[in-house]
Amino acid sequence: MPHEEPLPFWLVNLPRDQWPSECPDFLRDCSEKDRSIIGTPDAEYTRLSWDECRELIRANRVDKFHRVPSELRRYRQFTHRLVKEYGSILKFIVDERLKWTDMKPRGRPFECEDDIKILYNDWPYGVDEKIVHLVVWTKFPLDEVPGTDALTPEARQGIEDYVQRTFCSRVKPDHVIWFKNWASLKSVHAVEHFHVMLYDPVPDFVKFITNGDAPLASLVS
């Protein structure tokens, strides 16, 4: 049998009738990590289980969270377009998703509801589809130990207390996990945020806590 050359990464997961003649602009500056993921057929990708997510967060290996290959491609295409239209992902997030006109916090961390907004992660990771991935955005800083990605004990306790009273009052505690991305992994740096994952929560609770939000990945083609 003749040897088949592997497809270029930018053609994987695309129907043949949609193949571009060359690598699209939004994929040309991909890191090797993203090229490897995007070049993996979706059929060969295994979503992370809830237990695997919990273990990655416990071990602080949040760098191991990846998007499904075809979703990572869509994410890069979407953010490429955002930068052209808005000038930056940050501006889009603040203007269109958070709709915050004033970034000054009204109170101390977690004191005022107006300083916090809970939304879906617009482009969630490749995890069990029963997992709901949310992002908690804050106008106040979440202090880190200087020179590290580690939260200060005070900031960590503040998040833990907030997660307990906001999520664990309606979701089993062992069905709630949270983490803060390393600085090197953040796609939005200038607005503070951390991530919350819920396993198989009641949809009405998620609708309530996000004020009826929906992830952009489910809305854009």
From TrEMBL:
<protein>
    <recommendedName>
        <fullName>N-acetylglucosamine-induced protein 1</fullName>
    </recommendedName>
</protein>
<dbReference type="GO" id="GO:0005737">
    <property type="term" value="C:cytoplasm"/>
</dbReference>
<dbReference type="Pfam" id="PF12239">
    <property type="entry name" value="DUF3605"/>
</dbReference>
<dbReference type="GO" id="GO:0006044">
    <property type="term" value="P:N-acetylglucosamine metabolic process"/>
</dbReference>
<dbReference type="InterPro" id="IPR022036">
    <property type="entry name" value="DUF3605"/>
</dbReference>
